[in-house]
Amino acid sequence: MSTAVSAPGKVFLAGGYLVLDRAYTALVFALSARVHVLVHDIDTSSGVDLAEIVVQSPQFRDATWNYGYHLAEDQGGVAVIQLQGGSPAASSKNSFVETALLYALTYISSVLPKTTIKPSKVTILADNDYYSNTSSSTLPSYPRFSDFAVRLQDAHKTGLGSSAALVTAFTGAILSHYLPTSIFSLDTEEGRSKLHNLAQVAHCAAQGKVGSGFDIATAVYGTCVYRRFSPSILSSLGEPGSQGFSTRVRNIVDDTDPSVKWDTEISKNGVTIPEGMALVMCDVDCGSQTVSMVKKVLEWRKANSEDAKQLWDELQISNEILADNLRKGCMLELEEAFVAIRALIRDMSEASGVPIEPKEQTELLDAVTRDVEGVAGGVVPGAGGYDAIVLLVKDDEKTMGEINAFCKKWSEEKKGNVKLLNAKGELEGARKEDAVAYSK
Ligand SMILES: Nc1ncnc2c1ncn2[C@@H]1O[C@H](COP(=O)(O)OP(=O)(O)OP(=O)(O)O)[C@@H](O)[C@H]1O
Ligand SMILES: C[C@@](O)(CCOP(=O)(O)O)CC(=O)O
């Protein structure tokens, strides 16, 4: 039996930093660039009792991880141990995969206590836009996917949220593979909610911190207006292996604990991509230190609470106006909405001393909006910085051709590397795929 699930990457259009506080919301978009996870049963000869799951990411070198698993005592969930036999390099631990596996198997064991989890082989395939490494060769078994021929840690990420898309697709694929559809189905609202809760928990555990969770929400639900969950929801979960961990995981995933209720808000109708338009990204291939930027902005906010509140409130209003105009699809109003947001973001940059929309990005955004007729506007997405820009543009060949030509000219003049990515904004979140179609 084979199962496949894919989940999209994200682009954070508006509400960066604000979304860390539940009083504010964000406009987050799914991308056509997806991470795909395929699960295949492994045949074992009768009598052999094997408890092993082999995970591989064949686009990268040294990217095979073998895991053994067993039920921990005292309802401590499923313990997962990396075995010898995967890639030889010691550096090849994959915390996101290992943690997602532990949480998914723990959940399965909690809802189906008598089930034997059969051995399987899991294959991870990421659409090419996640990495700026250029590669001319593709995988022989999966011809749609590039062979990047480097180790994962040496790949240049484009910032589309690979770990969130991976954890979501991985969790969705493992649950779909091992659970009957009566208990878990990605096609139902209940199933999506379970996937969201489990993927948030696993992603936070693997990251070692609780962020706003917008990237997991986008990977599960696709484009939406997002209000974060209260971080306290995760605080009662305890450590894997601790007594009763398995029951606590089930309660948090199924949202059945009366004292802790999920309060994430997802509005699918709150925002869209206007007809005839596309949301595209240009990779600036520079890199920013998101974690330290967040720390510094939050420190400034704490020390200047009155000014910050005014700025945050004004930005929230501007972001809501942008969402409104995206639903209405009027070009002129959209242009104005982007200009208003960017002015406030620059105020935020200046006040906090954090390069959210740095000078170089201001120049780039101004120039592309001015020089390419089909560009309605754009922003520096998410935490901001030097990584990328996102643009709302007319979805036609002429505009895309002009943006490509602009990027080429800009890169030559500024000695940089600005490149239009193929990925475009799309509305859909995680979905089941046809596992057979991948090898075609
Ligand atoms: N294609 C893949 N195969 C296996 N593991 C992957 C893959 N993509 C991402 N991962 C896992 O996710 C980790 C990268 O997560 P990290 O939090 O550093 O990036 P991110 O913030 O999600 O990325 P981005 O810059 O795309 O937003 C990798 O170290 C690996 O554990
Ligand atoms: C700054 C922040 O609000 C957004 C970060 O977005 P990105 O990773 O730059 O796309 C942090 C968060 O929401 O966790």
TrEMBL record:
<dbReference type="GO" id="GO:0006696">
    <property type="term" value="P:ergosterol biosynthetic process"/>
</dbReference>
<protein>
    <recommendedName>
        <fullName>Phosphomevalonate kinase</fullName>
        <ecNumber>2.7.4.2</ecNumber>
    </recommendedName>
</protein>
<dbReference type="InterPro" id="IPR016005">
    <property type="entry name" value="Erg8"/>
</dbReference>
<dbReference type="Pfam" id="PF00288">
    <property type="entry name" value="GHMP_kinases_N"/>
</dbReference>
<keyword id="KW-0756">Sterol biosynthesis</keyword>
<dbReference type="GO" id="GO:0031388">
    <property type="term" value="P:organic acid phosphorylation"/>
</dbReference>
<dbReference type="InterPro" id="IPR036554">
    <property type="entry name" value="GHMP_kinase_C_sf"/>
</dbReference>
<dbReference type="InterPro" id="IPR014721">
    <property type="entry name" value="Ribsml_uS5_D2-typ_fold_subgr"/>
</dbReference>
<keyword id="KW-0808">Transferase</keyword>
<keyword id="KW-0418">Kinase</keyword>
<dbReference type="InterPro" id="IPR035102">
    <property type="entry name" value="Phosphomevalonate_kinase"/>
</dbReference>
<keyword id="KW-1207">Sterol metabolism</keyword>
<dbReference type="InterPro" id="IPR006204">
    <property type="entry name" value="GHMP_kinase_N_dom"/>
</dbReference>
<keyword id="KW-0547">Nucleotide-binding</keyword>
<dbReference type="InterPro" id="IPR020568">
    <property type="entry name" value="Ribosomal_Su5_D2-typ_SF"/>
</dbReference>
<dbReference type="GO" id="GO:0004631">
    <property type="term" value="F:phosphomevalonate kinase activity"/>
</dbReference>
<keyword id="KW-0067">ATP-binding</keyword>
<dbReference type="GO" id="GO:0005777">
    <property type="term" value="C:peroxisome"/>
</dbReference>
<comment type="similarity">
    <text>Belongs to the GHMP kinase family. Mevalonate kinase subfamily.</text>
</comment>
<dbReference type="GO" id="GO:0019287">
    <property type="term" value="P:isopentenyl diphosphate biosynthetic process, mevalonate pathway"/>
</dbReference>
<keyword id="KW-0752">Steroid biosynthesis</keyword>
<keyword id="KW-0444">Lipid biosynthesis</keyword>
<feature type="domain" description="GHMP kinase N-terminal">
    <location>
        <begin position="156"/>
        <end position="222"/>
    </location>
</feature>
<comment type="pathway">
    <text>Isoprenoid biosynthesis; isopentenyl diphosphate biosynthesis via mevalonate pathway; isopentenyl diphosphate from (R)-mevalonate: step 2/3.</text>
</comment>
<keyword id="KW-0443">Lipid metabolism</keyword>
<dbReference type="GO" id="GO:0010142">
    <property type="term" value="P:farnesyl diphosphate biosynthetic process, mevalonate pathway"/>
</dbReference>
<keyword id="KW-0753">Steroid metabolism</keyword>
<dbReference type="GO" id="GO:0005524">
    <property type="term" value="F:ATP binding"/>
</dbReference>
